[in-house]
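Protein Entry — a single chain follows
Next Lines — sequence and tokenised fold
***
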Amino acid sequence: MKKILALYAYADYNKGDSAICLGAKKLLEKIYPDADVVFANFLSSDHDYSVRARGFYSNYGIEVVDIPSRNLNKINKLSRLITMRDHNVNLFLQKEKYDLVISIGGHFLFSKDSSLHEKVRNKLRLQHIYQPIVEAKKCGIKTGILCQSVGPFNKADRVIKKVFDSLDFVITRESKSALSAKKHYKDVVSAIDMAFFMDSDPSPINKLAVDSSDYYVVNLRKVLASGGYEVSDVMYKKQIEFFVKTITKLISDKKSKVYLLSQVTSFDEKNSEFDSNIHYELKDKYFKNNCDVIVEPRVFTERELIKIYQDSKGLISTRYHGLIFGLLAGVNPVGVNIEGIGHKLTGMFDDLDIKENIIQLDDESTEESSSKVVELLSKPTNYDVEAYVNKNFEAINNAIR
């Protein structure tokens, strides 16, 4: 029986990251049916996210283990950054005799720093996350990255070089995510987001939904990427204007309801507060007394989210994982790219051959964009998620084995 250690990041405000982890376990067990797959957070065992993650994954029958050296002070972190060694992690890996140590979604392998403070902070973070990978390689254990955002990078970075030198395979999400990685690691596989492999089979496109459903789904957000990157004030205002016009047209022209769905919903005080509040604010400011615009103050599971998309007429979203859940459900999708952040979104739509369903909000007027959305949602979009998943599974399988 193979023993696999999967290093992950978890935040209960990010349904996408948890879906990636659930999908990664499902995929690994498909490749190695007799494998014992255990998870480990790169944070300390007493960190809030570690505690909540342990409870979350236990509901799915996933064992979570603690790895040493996760709770170091800054001096010890700096010392380890210089030596790039961790004796305790090395001993732990040798004792447990893992056959494969991988880092799965929810991390961001990059080193593009704008200040000395950011450079030191990011180096410490990268070293903390990927030291188990480095030590696993020293122990002769197979290592890899599975479904992460990779890049951009500084021209020269000692920590990044050490991580790449310790990897046996690198699997990013879609084709555009591989561009930066290929400059450092020639055999990059651009495959798929692991969320596609979560505990839900891809649904056939429901062509009848266009006529039979009575609502569309809208996802929008303020925080766009790892590290808390926010939409600029100008583009945020344009995003709101676009959605107000789009929702108004869907209600009046299509005689439909609109479900404002915060793809990330929890009571966490950080990113989820942004994500939840902007949906409520949109409703209160522009559609307060309109019963055709719906927003719900509750937490949804991944399966519940897919069901909502499955029963809808279509989805308009700035959110990458909102679109993945929608594609799993066979929804009519429109992806909205803001300020070039959505390379994952545009790459995925390119790979599915539905790039005409992308709204480039930077380059188009809100009137032009909203009219285009209504036109796109007037007819079913043909794509084959099952073929996409199977094709990428073969690529992943070949890379990992």
About this structure: The longest strand covers residues 142-150.
